[in-house]
Design a protein that fits this description.
By secondary structure, the chain is of the alpha+beta class. The chain contains four helices and eight strands. Helices cover 25% and strands 33% of the residues. The chain starts with a helix and ends in a 5-residue tail after the last helix. This is PaaI family thioesterase.
Length: 158
């Protein structure tokens, strides 16, 4: 993988989120078209021990994080952008013992809100496990206090 400044910034952001560390989420790719994360399969994400089915909360976390991080791909510098709304449509269960990928992109950016779309999949991106639309509030990059990671992420991209 080519280590671009955007990917490096995305990895720093992801490493600052403790729940994402516990789930072992990683950045697969990021560019001005969007971002892809991976959630490796583990016992920690199993919702039904009898079938090995992935818990919906793990999928929600993956998609919310991926959509939120897609804002990094469209903004000139880091901004705190909390989730306003996230709606998920589940298509089918994830297969046990397989990693799950999520790809998100921003399709509209306003002064106050960023609109995103994403899907989660395993082997084939054209066969999504679930799809999501999300909106994220723009709080700006110069918010005092807030997320400490912002200091390290606000360097302009090259």
């Amino acid at each position: 993988m080519n280590q671009t400044p955007l990917i490096a910034m995305a990895e720093r952001f992801l490493s600052a989120l403790r729940h994402c560390q516990l789930l072992q989420m990683r950045v697969v790719d990021a560019d001005d078209q969007g971002i892809t994360l991976i959630l490796p399969w583990s016992q920690a994400i199993v919702g039904n021990p009898q079938t090995g089915a992935v818990h919906g909360g793990a999928l929600t976390t993956l998609l919310d994080t991926t959509c939120g991080m897609a804002t990094l791909c469209v903004l000139p510098r880091f901004e705190v952008c909390p989730t306003l709304d996230l709606r998920i449509d589940y298509m089918h269960a994830a297969q046990p013992h397989k990693a799950i990928y999520a790809h998100a992109h921003c399709y509209r950016v306003t002064h106050d809100v960023i609109f995103t779309r994403a899907s989660a999949y395993q082997d084939d991106a054209t066969q999504p496990i679930c799809q999501v639309v999300g909106t994220f509030m723009r709080l700006g990059g110069d918010i005092k206090g807030g997320l400490d990671v912002g200091k390290h992420l606000s360097e302009p991209r090259r």
